[in-house]
Amino acid sequence: MKYQSQKIALAYFSVAMALFLVQVSGGLLAGWIYVSPNTLSDLVPFNIIRMLHTNSLIVWLLLGFFGAAYFLIPEEAEREIYSEKLAYLQLAILIIGTLGVVVTYLFNLFEGNWLLGKEGREFLEQPKWVKAGIVVAALIFLYNVTMTVLQGKKTAITNILLLGLWGLALLFLFSFYNPGNLALDKMYWWYVVHLWVEGVWELIMASILAYLMLKLTGVDREIVEKWLYVIVATALFSGILGTGHHYYWIGTPAYWQWIGSIFSSLEVIPFFAMMAFAFVMVWKGRRDHPNKAALLWSLGCATLAFFGAGVWGFMHTLHGVNFFTHGTQITAAHGHLAFYGAYVCLNLAVFSYAMPILRNRDPYNQVLNMASFWLMSSGMVFMTFVLTFAGTIQTHLQRVLGDYFMDVQDQLALFYWMRFGAGAVVVLGAILFVYAISVPRKEIIEPGEVSEAPAG
Amino acid sequence: MREVMTKSMTRNIFYGGSLFFLIIFLGLSVHSHLYILNTSTDADKLTDSVVAGKRIWEDHACVNCHTILGEGAYFAPEVANVMERWGVQNDHEAAFETLKGWMEAQPTGVEGRRQMPRFDLTDEQIRNLADFLIWTGNINSQGWPPNEAG
After folding, report:
1. pTM attached to this predicted model
2. Cβ contacts of A346 within 8 Å, gap of 6 or more
3. A81-93: per-residue pLDDT in tens?
4. Which of A69, A80, A417, B149 is the least crowded, having the fewest Cβ atoms under 10 Å away?
């Protein structure tokens, strides 16, 4: 650790990992309710559990991004973070908000209250006071990191990262706009949801990935940063108008069917470019970095993001296809692999890279960490497959033949059992990851003698 | 790429191009906003009761089980066309009666069936919710969903 203030990231990553465990446990419970629907139905209904699952995901990913920014900005800007105190204040606000959300959802407090009650639009269910807290925390964060960068060295990585984080905060302001007209509500709701995950979050992802590649492969900065600009250019050129693929059936004009189909098809390109970038850099790079686990997560991130966000997204993005698949388990399949590949793996790559440095140790414990990658990733890929099959059958029975929703769901039971099994593997992988990062003090495999290459 | 483009070229393409697409997007957004207000939804029928119904829909986090116009959780049926499915679209009184009957039969407690919670809504609130769902059913959603099943 070159700069003392990078230590801030340790606190962010720890809270993020705790919430990560909450998130996957919530997911597993929700998956169980699919196969055994009476579970907890009187105490904590499905909708509450799903809110905890999705909200904790978003919060821990954000905490990971914030932590990653506090970790990499000092190295990039070559100076300490402007104020450590503000960074911890920001974290405290976010933790209080998160606890407030959990208590409000679980005990269904202040229902209907404009300030204290949950707001009930998907993913933006947080009570207004928590939303306000998020804005305050984001402002503190942006002030803190922007001051750091302004006084230090400016690189392409910090420029893109800051642009992404500013965009994230500004777009969140649309969560306060909730008109009585449902079609308008939906149109601006996507300003937050789509322009986050298929817009500014991609900037954050690309810049963090570029930083990891720079450190892990030792490729020349000039080359990495040129790639970075090309990747984020394709991301925004396709992603901004790609919002149109959410404007097919919500009361918006029909021209979005063409704009959305064309531009969201192009959204595959940035994900392909990120995958190509990661592999080319590793191939070109001469550095044999000891942190193999971080490298595995980085390559896994780029690959699974390409399949989850890119291929699975394209699969149902053309309006002729989406007319039938919209709002089926196909969407759930895509959502799971896209979030896992693009943003979960990215955060876990950063944790794997940064935690040993933050705790001033060798990169313990590689074997367990890499095992957790294969467990989690294979579980998530299998889950994506079974949900895709379930969604295909659902689309045919419900959207083509016109069978009723619940009759169709009953026929999908086998897939939901397999999804639950896949989810259990993911949870095991997540627990193993947190264990591998935080507990072991000794490597399982002692480094052996390096054998000489045979002469000749 | 090394010979063809320099870093500053790629940077300028990124900023310039993103601004270009953002401006197009904002222009289309303004048009879509007006299209929603004037064409695809009925502003005259957006009564206080419809808006109150939307708040009830939100306060109880209905979207985290159901979908509405295909968006939400995929655990429970689509509701944008539920009144059509029940055969009471645009009949406010019948919609209220049917919805009340449905809401007050929950949870069924049937073993192995997904359970909808009991929300203990007043008649007034159920009326609001029914009006909201009727209004939603009248949004011009370009022909979606494909059939009555939603």
Report:
1. 0.96
2. A64, A205, A208, A209, A298, A301, A305
3. 999 999 999 999 9
4. A417
